[in-house]
């Protein structure tokens, strides 16, 4: 993003509606910049978010003519089934022993793999169980798409700098450039380390991970780093780049109509106001006193927040 465009965006007087409502900003004593959030691009599927929902039906691995979609709690199952059938699925509902719901989708004689992807795109479907043959079609060793969907990219502009970063989920590396600096970072899940270089600084971090939260700690951006992202609470809190960090968000998992996630708070001694579009993977808004306009492909907001230190500026820059 060039400086002229950044200057125009920063001079706009309209504020995002969500930004003015952030108690985190008010408590921290920050004032909001006059930044207009870039409009998301035309919708396109974020394939990584979709494919990661698809798993093998281990109870009946030979059941290739039926898809089982697990429905998020709290949904109106009648509306779910009606919408799926209206959109071309042959769906019926079944209640499990715990009172939860699932949908059975008949795909006999159809392209089951294609229908599995279509079913997984619905936000109220938390998991799609498929037969082993269908799973092999999507993720088999000889399927080129297996490699493709594990190659994430983050491209656009933020921090008054171009962003062009590749996130390889096979080698578990971040490579490319952002913040006017090369990025070369390696994630070792066995040793729970994140090492390399980014933001003109060595990266030497460790992490503790669970389904509920992840904590990242050590050194990066020429600064001590320690922050925890709690997915259930919708909170990232700690410190990095010689500054406190606190972000609030609501992923809205299980809600049919919630395709937008607002992230508000502060980091790098500046307010943060981001809008993430689940459908097309676009993040717009502002942080580090700069507009944000980046597109995430085959990765998502979970990755962005977990590795948030990468997207903060080195305080010496």
Q: How would you characterize this protein structure?
A:
The chain is of the alpha+beta class and 317 residues long. The protein folds into 2 domains: 3-36 and 150-311, no CATH class; 47-146, Alpha-Beta Plaits. It has 8 helices and 19 strands. It has helices at residues 3-11, 23-28, 47-51, 77-86, 112-120, 132-139, 144-149, 301-306, and strands at residues 54-56, 66-71, 91-95, 101-106, 125-130, 151-158, 161-168, 173-178, 181-188, 193-198, 201-209, 213-220, 223-230, 235-240, 243-249, 260-267, 270-277, 282-287, 290-297. A 14-stranded antiparallel barrel has the order 6-7-8-9-10-11-12-13-14-15-16-17-18-19. A 5-stranded mixed sheet has the order 1-5-2-4-3. Strand 7 (161-168) and strand 8 (173-178) form a beta hairpin. The longest helix is centred in the N-terminal third of the chain and has 10 residues, at 77-86. The two termini are 18 Å apart. The model is unreliable at 1-21 and 32-46 (pLDDT under 50).
């Amino acid at each position: 993003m060039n400086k002229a465009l950044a200057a125009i965006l920063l001079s706009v007087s309209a504020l995002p509606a969500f930004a003015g409502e952030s108690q985190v900003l008010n408590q921290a004593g920050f004032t909001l910049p006059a930044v207009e959030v870039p409009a998301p691009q035309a919708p396109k599927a974020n394939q990584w978010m979709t494919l990661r929902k698809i798993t093998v039906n281990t109870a009946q691995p030979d059941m290739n003519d039926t898809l089982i979609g697990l429905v998020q709690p709290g949904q109106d199952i009648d509306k779910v089934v009606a919408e799926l059938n209206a959109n071309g699925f042959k769906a019926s509902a079944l209640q499990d022993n715990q009172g939860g719901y699932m949908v059975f989708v008949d795909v006999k004689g159809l392209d089951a793999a294609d229908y599995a992807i279509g079913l997984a795109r619905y936000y109220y479907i938390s998991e799609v169980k498929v037969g082993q043959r269908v799973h092999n079609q999507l993720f088999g060793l000889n399927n080129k798409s297996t490699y493709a969907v594990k190659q994430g990219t983050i491209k656009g502009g933020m921090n008054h700098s171009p962003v062009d970063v590749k996130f390889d989920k096979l080698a578990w590396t971040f490579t490319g450039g952002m913040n006017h600096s090369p990025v070369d970072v390696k994630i070792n899940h066995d040793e729970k380390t994140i090492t390399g270089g980014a933001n003109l600084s060595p990266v030497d971090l460790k992490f503790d991970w669970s389904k509920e939260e992840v904590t990242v700690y050590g050194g990066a951006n020429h600064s001590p780093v320690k922050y925890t992202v709690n997915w259930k609470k919708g909170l990232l809190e700690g410190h990095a780049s010689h500054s406190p960090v606190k972000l609030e968000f609501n992923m809205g998992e299980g809600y049919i109509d919630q395709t937008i996630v607002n992230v508000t708070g502060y980091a790098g001694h500046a307010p943060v106001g981001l809008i993430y579009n689940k459908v097309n993977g676009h993040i717009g808004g502002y942080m580090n006193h700069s507009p944000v306009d980046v597109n995430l492909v085959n990765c998502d907001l979970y990755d962005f927040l977990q590795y948030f230190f990468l997207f903060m500026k080195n305080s010496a820059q």
